[in-house]
């Protein structure tokens, strides 16, 4: 299948003049200065995304996420390298690419702040050249999907953050784009609103078949929505694969907490022998905590080993937290 | 082109509707700007009434120069208010949102936060009518000067817009441009409210040759009011406005490719 988004050796560096030394007319001298600092925000990034994929693009603050997204959307011009959206170059054909893109910035609305939600859609429809009939059908469809009905005629400034996010999402989808860029769509939302936004995003990807690129700091977003994760750190790609692969690659241990009927009897030699697959972390009275590498040993095998130390009364297992997985990667 | 105008019209109306959400502020600022500009002109009028003329320019002539410039500026700032306010877009990164739309960035920017300059329009028309009727009564100018004046106003609006757009484009390199705007837009325009001949040679040179705002009123005024130059002054005026506009568009486009956005 032809990829929807291709990024080849993409780099962006920002040049800013070095501030002049203290003294009179400092601002003016800075302006005249020929000395610059070069900061590479993105360096040699490569990836390609197939139609219908839901990809999480993550990294710590300042890693180059937003810079990449902005280059994909045609806002920033790359210093070197290439971007193709559906075969088009977003810098040369910015306006054509804009028609194929829906973009949501969680931090700032793209709606007309003082106008009713409906008016924003009318304006956007005109911008994208959507005729009245198609527009009405589309708005009804989106109003159903995202439940916009109750605040369709409310000025945007009076919406709650959750409502605003839904309204913004509908705005990004109004012109039926093939590709959706979502920049922190759940930022600042409460648990309920987050969950509903995730459900909407999921159905947008599955039912409407949109290709989605999502940047977020909320690892639950990634875990629940994305089929693939791309990690960027200090401007370069660190990982590109599925969530399971990511977990495996990091190899964070699964925690097994076993409660025995009596305090377990531990052969000290055993601990070293199986150190790679099963490590005893802590013994506290009748409870034993072990870290188990699931790549090397299955849960059943681990339990069989632990059974040797005594009669097991209760077992509790904890999968590694995705958030922790990511932390070790940064 | 047609669809571009329609788009602009639609966004313009939306912008006005947004403004009207704060009705008091809308009317209050309109009235205040009228009062301020009338007071400004009264100060000039007091000087002229006292001395009769400045450097050979009568009150009516000075009124023409003043009001033609006011009207040009009112048109420019009504049609393209936020070109003047580009700095806030650059500093906050709000230009991002405009770049995501399938319409020219300039169209999107111009139609933001539109403010109709009722005050300046009212003041400008009033002063212009008074000045021109006096000049026509004295037989200094004929009826033909009315369409010529309209031509000068429109050409001047394009000129002021181009100067504004060029300054705005500098923002892509400098980000902070308030100081630059003070010189190219505010100081230069304030200077040519009065007959340019009152200034020393070097300053006249700047106002005609470097920041050519003198062509918004004074230079064409030499022909329209006094016939000091030949008719070629009018095409020259329009030509300079058009050339500057072309240059401004070019620099603007180049500037957008240098846009750095903001961190988020």
Q: Which properties best describe this structure?
A:
heterodimer; A: 330 residues; alpha/beta; Rossmann fold; Alpha-Beta Plaits; 2 domains; six-stranded mixed sheet; four-stranded antiparallel sheet; B: 264 residues; two-stranded antiparallel sheet; 13 helices; 2 strands
Give structural notes.
The complex is a heterodimer of chains A (330) and B (264). Chain A has two domains: 51-78 and 87-241, Rossmann fold, CATH 3.40.50; 252-329, Alpha-Beta Plaits, CATH 3.30.70. Chain A is globular and about 75 Å long. Chain A has helices spanning 26-32, 65-72, 94-100, 117-127, 132-146, 161-173, 191-206, 219-225, 243-250, 268-273, 299-307, 322-329, and strands spanning 5-17, 36-49, 54-58, 80-85, 101-105, 179-183, 211-215, 228-233, 236-241, 254-260, 278-284, 287-292, 312-318. Chain A has 330 residues and is of the alpha/beta class. Chain B has one domain. The two termini of chain B are 35 Å apart. With 264 residues, chain B is mostly helical. Chain B contains 13 helices and two strands. Chain B has helices spanning 2-20, 23-51, 59-79, 81-84, 86-92, 95-99, 105-110, 118-137, 145-174, 178-191, 201-210, 218-226, 233-257, and strands at 53-54, 57-58. Classes of the chains: A alpha/beta (330), B mainly alpha (264). The A-B interface holds A 14, 31, 62, 66-67, 70, 73-77, 91, 94-96, 98-99, 101, 103, 105, 107-108, 110, 112-115, 119, 123, 126-128, 155, 183 and B 6-7, 10-11, 14, 17-19, 21-22, 94-97, 99-104, 174, 257-261, 263-264.
In brief:
The complex is a heterodimer of chains A (330) and B (264). Chain A is an alpha/beta fold. Chain A contains 12 helices and 13 strands.
């Amino acid at each position: 299948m032809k990829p929807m988004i291709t990024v080849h050796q993409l780099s962006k560096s920002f040049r800013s003049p070095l501030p002049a030394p203290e003294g009179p007319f400092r601002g003016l001298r800075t302006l005249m200065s020929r000395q610059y600092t070069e900061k590479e925000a993105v360096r040699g990034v490569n990836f390609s995304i197939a139609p219908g994929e839901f990809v999480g693009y993550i990294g710590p603050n300042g890693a180059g996420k937003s810079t990449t997204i902005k280059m994909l959307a045609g806002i920033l011009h790359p210093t070197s390298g290439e971007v193709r959206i559906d075969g088009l170059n977003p810098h040369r054909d910015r306006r054509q690419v804009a028609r194929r893109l829906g973009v949501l910035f969680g931090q700032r609305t793209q709606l007309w702040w003082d106008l009713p939600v409906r008016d924003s859609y009318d304006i956007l429809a005109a911008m994208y050249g959507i005729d009245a009939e198609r527009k009405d059908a589309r708005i009804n469809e989106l109003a159903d999907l995202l439940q916009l009905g109750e605040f369709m005629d409310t000025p945007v400034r009076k919406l709650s953050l959750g409502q605003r996010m839904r309204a913004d999402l509908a705005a990004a989808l109004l012109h039926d784009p093939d590709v959706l860029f979502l920049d922190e769509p759940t930022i600042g939302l409460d648990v309920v609103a987050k969950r509903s936004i995730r459900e909407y995003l999921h159905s947008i990807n599955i039912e409407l078949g949109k290709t989605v690129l999502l940047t977020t700091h909320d690892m639950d977003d990634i875990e629940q929505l994305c089929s693939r994760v791309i990690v960027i750190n200090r401007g370069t790609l660190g990982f590109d694969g599925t969530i399971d692969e990511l977990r495996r690659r990091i190899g964070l241990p699964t925690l097994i907490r076993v409660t025995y009927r009596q305090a377990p009897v531990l052969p000290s030699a055993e601990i070293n022998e199986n150190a790679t697959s099963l490590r005893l972390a802590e013994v506290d009275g009748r409870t034993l905590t072990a870290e188990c590498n699931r790549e090397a040993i299955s849960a059943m095998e681990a339990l069989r080993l632990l059974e040797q130390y005594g009669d097991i009364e209760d077992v509790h297992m904890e999968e590694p937290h995705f958030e922790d997985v990511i932390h070790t990667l940064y | 082109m047609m669809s571009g105008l329609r788009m602009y019209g639609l966004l313009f109306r939306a912008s006005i509707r947004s403004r009207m959400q704060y009705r008091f502020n809308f009317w209050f600022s309109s009235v205040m700007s009228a009062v301020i500009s009338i007071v400004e002109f009264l100060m000039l009028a007091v000087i002229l009434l006292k001395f009769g003329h400045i450097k050979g320019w009568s009150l009516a002539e000075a009124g023409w120069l003043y009001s033609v410039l006011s009207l040009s500026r009112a048109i420019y700032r009504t049609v393209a208010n936020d070109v003047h306010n580009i700095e806030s877009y650059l500093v906050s990164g709000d230009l991002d949102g405009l770049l995501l739309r399938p319409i020219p960035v300039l169209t999107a920017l111009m139609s933001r936060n539109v403010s109709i300059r009722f005050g300046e329009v009212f003041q400008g028309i009033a002063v212009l009518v008074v000045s021109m009727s006096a000049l026509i009564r004295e037989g200094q100018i004929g009826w033909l000067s009315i369409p010529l004046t309209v031509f000068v106003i429109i050409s001047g609006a394009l000129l002021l817009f181009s100067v504004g757009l060029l300054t705005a484009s500098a923002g892509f390199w400098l980000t902070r441009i308030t100081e630059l705007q003070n010189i190219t837009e505010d100081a230069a325009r304030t200077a040519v409210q009065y007959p340019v001949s009152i200034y020393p040679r070097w300053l006249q040179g700047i106002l005609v040759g470097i920041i050519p705002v003198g062509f918004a009123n004074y230079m064409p005024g030499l022909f329209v009011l006094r016939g000091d130059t030949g008719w070629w002054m009018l095409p020259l005026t329009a030509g300079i406005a058009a050339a500057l506009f072309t240059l401004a568009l070019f620099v603007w486009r180049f500037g957008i490719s240098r846009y750095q956005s903001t961190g988020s």
